[in-house]
């Protein structure tokens, strides 16, 4: 069961969205069952902007968690997810920014205050360590300390990721 908004968003009725007044979801986004968005955290510096911002055509799969990053004690900073982003099943997002056209596969852990720039692919089960910056057009896989790697992606991924995000919206 879905709730559909006038801007084309589809939000599962059993998605856990806390602090909805602090969350901005742009048009044509999909939030699947069991996904949780924690918009009810206390920000370190009061701002007029949202705690969680999700760009157009983004797709949050089941059981993913969007948790604003911790800056100091129990105070958080905002999290921004760009347009045409796909967040995989069972993925935990605690970072500051995900750029546009990013695919994050299932079971990833994106740790506190990391930044992922545009046109990246984060492979299944990857752990992105705290405060790491992933440059544009990167493929990231593995776990730090064991097999963590950051490689380059072709410029063709820009259009491929955008197309994939739009197709997912049509399939839902």
Describe this structure in words.
This protein has 172 residues and is mostly beta strands. It has a single domain, classed as Hexapeptide repeat proteins (UDP N-Acetylglucosamine Acyltransferase, domain 1), CATH 2.160.10. The protein is built from 1 helix and 24 strands. The chain has one helix spanning 157-171; strands at 2-4, 10-12, 16-18, 23-25, 30-31, 36-38, 42-43, 52-54, 59-60, 65-66, 70-72, 75-76, 79-81, 86-87, 92-93, 97-98, 102-104, 109-110, 115-116, 120-122, 127-128, 133-134, 138-141, 149-152. The strands form 4 sheets. Strands 1-2-5-9-14-17-20-23-24 form a 9-stranded mixed beta sheet. It has a 6-stranded parallel beta sheet with strand order 3-6-10-15-18-21, with no helix packed on it. Strand 1 and strand 2 (10-12) form a beta hairpin.
